[in-house]
Design goal:
Helices cover 67% and strands 0% of the residues. With 327 residues, the chain is mostly helical. It is globular and about 45 Å long. The N terminus and C terminus are likely disordered.
């Protein structure tokens, strides 16, 4: 949610020395903080953008390194191993209402999002899939009105439309085929992720819990949903090649555990609408990966699209009107 100014509170009755030190990882909703300075916000945005930039390599990794026609298996092996590793490293489990909150976020971010994403990647050209996912800032703005009580500015809405147009110019091809099931899958996946961004902003994280632990909870919850479905519907391939193992390892550790931890930190530190625009780094990196790895070339229209996308990201970092305080 948008960070609002702290309310005046009565003077504490306890001596300052008796009060425990403030926990820097405290739940943002329980400990309101001032908006970050422009310099700090730029730093948070740069780190958070690493997540979507890494996700931009998912398409080429899927098509070049992973076994064909196994989107559910790819989703499960991307989520569950990474989640279990983070749980082992952090040695912290949810408590109280965070059991169900972690489950909800895990399903939205991974358990439902990943298979829909991979299904779309297998059934749509990368350009069509990326263009659909570019509507996420507009969806976050819509969800934010009801959940966060944040009204998007006209500038934010304009930036969202510019972003969609830019991505379309960047990645769409005249020969692109349209698969209705793939379109529905990508639109649903994008909607779920937008809702996850807004809920993550509203709920924050529990006191004393690191971002790696929170990421591990969600990955494990999503992976536990995915694993039995993947094994039942697709099963394992006859064997895994070295390329398959490298692809799964990269997606799990770099493209998921690290990328999502940085993404969640951005959600915590920045307005939800600002973070959502950073997701447009995904198609930019996907296009650049195609240039470097697949030997593709850029047209004049793609260069124009790239400029529009970057302009949209910059425009989207404007501040929305502060939300009304909740009782």
């Amino acid at each position: 949610m948008e960070q609002s100014a702290e309310k005046n509170s009565p003077a504490p009755t306890a001596q300052p020395s008796a009060r425990p030190a403030a926990d820097p990882t405290a739940h943002p909703a329980a400990r309101p903080t001032a908006r970050p300075s422009a310099k700090a916000a730029a730093g948070f945005a740069a780190l958070a953008a690493i997540g979507p930039a890494t996700w931009g390599t998912t398409y080429v990794t899927t098509t070049e390194l992973l076994p064909p026609d196994r989107p559910l298996l790819a989703a499960a092996l991307r989520a569950l191993p990474a989640g279990l590793i983070l749980l082992a490293l952090t040695r912290r489990l949810p408590s109280g209402d965070w059991w169900w909150k972690a489950a909800v976020l895990g399903i939205l971010n991974f358990g439902a999002f990943f298979p829909l994403l991979f299904f779309g990647a297998y059934h749509l050209p990368g350009g069509v899939a990326s263009t659909i996912s570019a509507v996420m800032p507009l969806l976050v703005a819509g969800f934010g009105i009801g959940v966060l009580k944040v009204r998007p500015t006209r500038r934010t809405l304009l930036a969202g439309l510019v972003g969609v147009a830019g991505v379309a110019l960047l990645v769409l091809r005249g020969s692109a085929t349209v698969n209705l099931a793939g379109i529905v899958a990508m639109l649903t996946a994008t909607t779920l992720m937008a809702l996850a961004v807004v809920l993550s902003k509203r709920w924050g994280r529990p006191e004393g819990t690191s971002l790696l632990a929170l990421t591990g909870w969600q990955l494990t919850a999503g992976g536990l949903v995915l694993a039995p479905i993947a094994l039942t519907a697709e099963g394992l391939p006859g064997h895994f090649t070295g390329a398959n193992i490298a692809g799964y390892t990269y997606l799990g550790i770099i493209g998921t555990a690290l990328a999502y931890a940085l993404w969640f930190r951005g959600i915590e530190r920045l307005p939800a609408s600002s973070v959502s625009f950073l997701g447009l780094a995904n198609p930019v990196v996907a296009t650049l990966a195609g240039l470097v790895i697949l030997g593709q070339t850029l047209t004049v229209w793609q260069v124009a699209g790239l400029v529009l996308v970057l302009g949209s990201v910059a425009l989207g970092q404007s501040r929305s009107k502060a939300p009304r305080a909740r009782a």
